[in-house]
Task: inverse folding
């Protein structure tokens, strides 16, 4: 797995990059689209809520105005239809009140006729107010000035919130006033009906910010012009107004105001923004939830994908590295082969000349006049040495050449076991001197392989020679094993020698790499083996434990037919 | 009379000289040529040459080509190939082309001499057979 490899940081980096890219690419558009849609929705919804509230308030304003106008009209009608004298008759008045009550339910509480001095001449209603004097009452002063008046809500003489609709009439020159008390509760219902959601409610204030309706909680509006719901410093341009502000608790609130009753009263509707936009909040929560779940999915997918991808990449890299290694190896061997062939030829010629010249000296020395020379023996030895060393050069170049292009013998179908047996026989003498025991454990009936006999001999002789050399001092055992393994023949040559140190094990197939003393080994044996096996599309591997031994595993592709059916060990 | 008349062909002058001295001492009559072309010229001039010792790797006309040419023009002359980097294959190739034998440099002088002798003997036997055949033909015509 790549996690343990040296390239782990690189792969981690790769995973990180992929995750970031996938998440980035998926999230950014989703995010942008969501934000755009969301903000548009919020704006549209907000507008809709505002428009709705405004329509509602305007509707109620009209309703309230209509209610007040209707009551006024009732009283006006009453005052116009009947004379002062008629209305001064309390029984008559009582009858009128009854008919009003019959027509409009309990809206009218009482009726009264007040003369110019403010004393009530006649009265019909539940309270004992017959002789009441309204000279100081605010509404009375107003009605004397304005003909018609609808008063603010006040407690008055009866100690009960109510308001008065009054009309001024003239009896000759003397003004008189017909007044009616409107049932506060009936009026209040008009406003109390306006509640929306959990927090939306309406109130009516007068110009001084005094409450004209009762509210559920004991809410007290700020004192001042219209309870400061309208900025009175500027001219009022619109009857209905909407704004968002913080209420006295600091909660954002939508406030819709509408002026009533010729701007004397103000209908105020308030609703907490959260409550007004509850649907939007719900949509918000749902979309956030979807966004979160989608995001989690994206993150999980990106993680999964990246890790999977990087695993694949790591596998491919590993394969590539292996291939590269093999290509380099074979390339190295090939170029070395070229070099070896050139070197062999270039060296063989001068060596041949040297050897021939030495031979010539030898020839001359056979002349009779040199017979008596005291250095004759020494000269002969020296010339022989030249000859021997020349032969050694030749041997090296021959090996180099066979490494470079194989010994060139014919390729035919071979039984690998026969080759091994031959090698064992060939080496048995040497092995005996080195006190090395040779054991072969060969699977019978192996299929044949296509190979050159001499090359195969060379491979196994090289391996055996190396093994014997390694165990020359200590003695030991060489074990041959052959067996079939899915399409390949595996041959193992294992010794019990000192093993190959870790530091050099990867170099043992390199040409000219040798651990033998100078002059004893050419360092070509194993590279020749490697070259031969690779040429046959086989593989040679080495396993070694220092102090325990070395095992060469050769795998050769099967080309021939199987000699028998069942495999047996012999 | 020398054991055999030899033409030694190699582009390496010192080698040819050393070999000439050594082989002359062993009572072989040596002519030297330093290229394939020269060898063919010498063969054309001198009818006495029995064996050619031919280096395979030479600049210009190489050993193989020279061998083919010799076999074509002087079929009775025996050729021993001498190579600086012999492989069994080049040896076999040479022998397929009609060479008598091949040796690898540096070679053992005695071995070379014995091969030359065998080659010369073969050539002489061959020539003798031809002579006898001719004689037979002539005598046959008479009877």
Result:
């Amino acid at each position: 797995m790549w996690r343990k490899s040296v390239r782990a940081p690189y792969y981690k980096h790769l995973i990180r990059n992929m995750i970031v890219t996938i998440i980035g690419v998926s999230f950014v558009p989703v995010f942008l689209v969501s934000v755009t849609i969301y903000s548009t929705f919020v704006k549209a919804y907000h507008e809709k809520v505002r428009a709705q509230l405004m329509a509602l308030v305007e509707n109620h304003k009209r309703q309230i105005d209509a209610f007040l106008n209707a009551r006024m009209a009732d009283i006006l009608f009453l005052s116009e239809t009947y004379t002062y004298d008629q209305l001064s008759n309390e029984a008559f008045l009582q009858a009128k009140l009854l008919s009003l009550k019959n027509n409009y339910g309990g809206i009218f509480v009482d009726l009264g006729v007040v003369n110019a001095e403010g004393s009530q001449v006649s009265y019909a209603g539940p309270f004992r107010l017959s002789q009441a004097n309204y000279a100081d009452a605010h509404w009375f002063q107003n009605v004397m000035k304005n003909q018609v008046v609808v008063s603010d809500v006040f407690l008055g003489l009866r100690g009960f919130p109510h308001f008065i609709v009054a009309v001024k009439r003239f009896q000759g020159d003397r003004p008189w006033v017909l007044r009616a008390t409107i049932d506060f509760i009936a009026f209040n219902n008009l406003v109390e009906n306006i509640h929306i959601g959990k927090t939306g409610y309406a109130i009516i204030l007068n110009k001084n910010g005094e409450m004209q309706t009762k509210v559920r909680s004991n809410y007290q509006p700020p004192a001042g012009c219209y309870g400061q719901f309208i900025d009175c410093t500027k001219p009022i341009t619109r009857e209905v107004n909407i704004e968002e502000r913080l209420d006295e608790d600091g909660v954002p609130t939508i406030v819709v105001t509408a002026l009533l009753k010729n701007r004397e009263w103000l209908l105020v509707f308030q609703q907490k923004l959260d409550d007004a936009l509850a649907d939007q909040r719900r949509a918000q929560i749902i979309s956030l939830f979807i966004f979160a779940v989608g995001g989690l999915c994206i993150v999980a997918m990106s993680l999964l994908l990246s890790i999977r991808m990087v695993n694949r990449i790591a596998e491919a890299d590993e394969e590539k590295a292996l291939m590269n290694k093999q290509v380099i190896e074979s390339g190295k061997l090939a170029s070395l082969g070229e070099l070896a062939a050139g070197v062999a030829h270039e060296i063989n010629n001068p060596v041949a000349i040297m050897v021939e010249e030495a031979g010539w000296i030898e020839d001359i020395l056979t002349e009779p006049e040199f017979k008596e020379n005291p250095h004759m023996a020494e000269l002969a030895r020296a010339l022989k040495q030249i000859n021997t060393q020349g032969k050694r050069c030749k041997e090296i170049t021959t090996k180099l050449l066979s490494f470079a292009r194989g010994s060139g013998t014919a390729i035919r179908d071979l039984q690998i076991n026969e080759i091994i047996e031959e090698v064992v026989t060939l080496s048995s003498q040497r092995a005996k001197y080195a006190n090395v025991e040779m054991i072969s454990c060969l699977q019978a009936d192996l299929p044949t392989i296509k190979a050159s006999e001499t090359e195969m001999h060379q491979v196994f002789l090289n391996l055996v020679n190396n093994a014997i050399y390694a165990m020359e001092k200590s003695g030991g055992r060489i074990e041959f094993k052959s067996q079939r393994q899915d399409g390949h023949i595996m041959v193992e040559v294992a010794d019990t020698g000192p093993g190959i140190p870790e530091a050099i094990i990867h170099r043992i197939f390199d040409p000219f790499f040798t651990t033998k003393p100078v002059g004893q080994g050419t360092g070509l044996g194993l590279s020749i083996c490697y070259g031969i096996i690779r040429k046959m599309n086989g593989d040679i591997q080495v396993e070694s434990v220092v102090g325990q031994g070395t095992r060469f595993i050769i795998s050769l592709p099967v080309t021939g037919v199987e000699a028998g059916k069942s495999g047996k060990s012999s | 009379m020398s054991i055999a008349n030899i033409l030694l062909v190699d582009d390496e002058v010192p080698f040819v000289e050393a070999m000439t001295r050594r082989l002359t001492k062993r009572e072989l009559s040596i002519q030297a040529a330093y290229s394939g072309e020269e060898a063919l010229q010498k063969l054309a001039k001198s009818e006495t040459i029995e064996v050619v010792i031919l280096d395979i790797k030479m600049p210009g006309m190489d050993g193989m080509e020279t061998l083919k040419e010799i076999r074509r023009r002087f079929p009775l002359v025996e050729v021993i190939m001498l190579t600086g980097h012999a492989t069994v294959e080049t040896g076999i190739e040479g022998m397929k082309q009609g060479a008598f034998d091949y040796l690898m440099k540096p070679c053992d002088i005695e071995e070379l001499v014995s091969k030359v002798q065998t080659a010369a003997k073969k050539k002489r036997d061959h020539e003798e057979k031809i002579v006898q055949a001719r004689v037979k033909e002539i005598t046959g015509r008479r009877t």
Observations:
- The longest helix of chain A spans residues 278-365.
